[in-house]
Task: inverse folding
């Protein structure tokens, strides 16, 4: 409220905060703005799925096996229109996709957040402690990154079995190394800055130095990596679920929906796989485009 | 150079050892070894006998030692499903995967370098922009989804190519290969393209970046000033200089392709190692899982080693550095 009363007074020149500059530079690309809107829309659909989906795909009372494998646009026995068709259980694909998005986004974003916290903390510690700690952590990062993500995830799920928690654990283990590497390189640059020297002269405790003074300045590259890794973990989760190693059948993500429709595709019933695939695709592409634009805006090397 | 190579070899051996520890811990500590190593159909008496036979009552380090010495002798247990040595099963499936991966590498070089050259030489043309735009798709589309779309378009809708399977094979050096028959090639076309897609995009982008970086350099100007034909400048002088990063990345990616073949093989029902491991995980055929993981780790360590060695051969700068 106070903000509006200030605006009513003769307008002072707008303060150029880093955030405002970021927003205005980001908005220069219409594609990036559209992707951002799309991401917001997809997240809202996922969050609001129970309220806006035509049916609850997990409530068996609402399903009728007689409605199974109906093509898009056909009507159910109760008069509900299946805009995207139904799967073999007579489940409305549109509702299935909305609920699937919840799981895909939840697993993808959740694991990326956890990996981000762990990886960033380890990266900062490595940069700040130096010496043996640094070498140790970075060796582990190198070892981790020399094996492809899918292989590491496969290995973990082979040991632990499938399940939402196990998939998230696998994704965290796959991703923390990238955060650690990014955070460390950013921190090494920041550590040499004058404000860090000043903070050190104040004899602040080390944790305060690292997490209150250095971390905020290391955030830009970490945010970029975070966006891209959310998209990557959604892809990886979908791939693992498609292979039957990811989420259980009771909590189908987009990948599992696609896998369920795969067997019907050869007989021409394309929609069971096709539409969840499109949803997955749009989600991944939108997040990637947002990440790309953020990278361009936040990269000091590309500053005009 | 020799000391460097020796150090690199020891490093590779160390990584291998660490991975055996991880796989061992994964199987024996995280998972229940009785569940993992003994067939789920075994009864109580059989179980007790197997526990004793496998030495599961022994201390952990002794168990690890048994596992390691078994692995070194090529004994990684027997498959529950096929009742054959796990390693033999994997060796049988390996040619199919290698064939697919090598074809994918060839495809990514054959398609990626020309496309990258075009995009690098004409960065502002419509074609150049279209290539770069498409390469983003190649990176970010999920492999399995692209595979499904390929099947839907080329097998179901158009009916040009067979949808799944490996087709007829012919023997060469005692191994069955698909690429020797026309029908085998037709079966391989879609999986290989599917597997190669990400790498085509990668090679293309590397080539483009290399061309853009090298064109303004003095040696290119000098070559032009000497009156060398533009084609020769691009295809001999520039290409030679951008090949180093491409060779490295393509080499490193062979391992990635073999790992990602898991996805492609499952989509196209290609009977390789990747399909075997997925099937084995689904039926809990754990000796095969362990054997696959050990094989693939070995493969990776060897590939990383070879790429490092090749790098020193190809790039005189690295060679000089290691000599010092």
Result:
């Amino acid at each position: 409220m106070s903000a509006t009363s200030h605006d009513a007074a003769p307008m002072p020149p707008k303060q150029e905060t880093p955030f405002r500059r970021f927003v205005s530079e980001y908005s220069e690309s219409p594609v990036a703005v559209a992707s951002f809107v799309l991401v917001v829309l997809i997240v809202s659909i996922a969050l609001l799925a129970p309220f806006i989906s035509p049916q609850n795909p997990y409530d068996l009372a609402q399903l009728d096996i007689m409605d199974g494998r109906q093509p898009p646009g056909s009507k159910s026995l109760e008069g509900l229109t299946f805009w995207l068709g139904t799967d073999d259980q007579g489940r409305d694909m549109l509702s299935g996709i909305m609920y699937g998005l919840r799981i895909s986004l939840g697993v993808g974003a959740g694991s990326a957040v956890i990996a981000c916290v762990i990886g960033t903390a380890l990266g900062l510690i490595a940069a700040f402690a130096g010496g043996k700690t640094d070498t140790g952590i970075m060796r582990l990062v190198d070892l981790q990154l020399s094996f492809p993500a899918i292989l590491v995830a496969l290995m973990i799920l082979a040991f632990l079995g499938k399940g939402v928690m196990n998939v998230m654990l696998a994704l965290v283990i796959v991703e923390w190394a990238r955060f650690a590497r990014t955070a460390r390189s950013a921190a090494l640059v920041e550590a040499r800055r004058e404000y860090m020297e000043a903070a050190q002269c104040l004899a602040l405790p080390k944790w305060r130095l690292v997490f209150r003074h250095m971390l905020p300045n290391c955030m830009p590259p970490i945010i970029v990596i975070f966006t891209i890794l959310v998209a990557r973990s959604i892809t990886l989760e979908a791939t693992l679920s498609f292979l039957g190693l990811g989420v259980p059948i009771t909590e189908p993500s987009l990948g599992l929906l696609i896998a369920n429709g795969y067997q019907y595709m050869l007989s021409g019933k394309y929609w069971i796989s096709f539409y969840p695939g499109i949803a997955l695709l749009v989600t991944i592409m939108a997040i990637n485009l947002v990440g790309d634009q953020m990278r361009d805006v936040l990269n000091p090397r590309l500053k005009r | 150079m020799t000391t460097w190579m020796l150090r690199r070899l020891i490093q590779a051996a160390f990584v291998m050892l660490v991975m055996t520890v991880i796989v061992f811990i994964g199987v024996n500590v995280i998972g229940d070894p009785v569940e993992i190593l003994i067939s789920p159909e075994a009864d109580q008496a059989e179980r007790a006998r197997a526990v004793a036979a496998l030495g599961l009552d022994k201390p952990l380090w002794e168990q690890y030692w048994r596992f390691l010495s078994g692995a070194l002798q090529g004994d990684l247990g027997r498959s529950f499903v096929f009742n054959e040595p796990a390693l033999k099963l994997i060796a049988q499936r390996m040619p199919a995967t290698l064939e697919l991966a090598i074809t994918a590498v060839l495809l990514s070089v054959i398609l990626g370098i020309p496309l990258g050259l075009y995009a690098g030489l004409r960065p502002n043309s419509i074609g150049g922009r279209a290539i770069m735009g498409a390469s983003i798709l190649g990176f970010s589309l999920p492999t399995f989804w692209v595979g499904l779309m390929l099947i839907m378009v080329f097998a179901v809708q158009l009916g040009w190519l067979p949808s799944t399977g490996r087709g007829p094979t012919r023997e060469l050096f005692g191994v069955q290969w698909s690429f020797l028959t026309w029908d085998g090639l037709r079966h391989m076309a879609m999986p290989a393209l599917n597997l190669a897609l990400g790498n085509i995009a990668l090679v293309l982008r590397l080539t483009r970046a290399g061309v853009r970086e090298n064109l303004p350099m003095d040696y290119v100007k000098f070559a032009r000033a000497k009156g060398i034909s533009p084609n020769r400048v691009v295809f001999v002088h520039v290409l030679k200089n951008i090949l180093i990063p491409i060779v490295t990345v393509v080499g490193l990616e062979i391992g990635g392709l073999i790992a990602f073949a898991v996805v492609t093989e499952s989509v196209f029902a290609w009977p390789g190692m990747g399909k075997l491991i997925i099937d084995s995980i689904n039926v809990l055929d754990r000796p095969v899982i362990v054997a696959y993981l050990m094989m693939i780790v070995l493969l990776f360590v060897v590939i990383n080693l070879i790429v490092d060695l090749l790098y020193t051969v190809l790039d005189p700068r690295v060679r000089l550095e290691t000599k010092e």
Notes: Residues 230-268 of chain B form the longest helix (39 residues). The mean pLDDT of chain B is 79. Chain B has two domains: 2-72, 93-323. The radius of gyration of chain B is 24 Å.
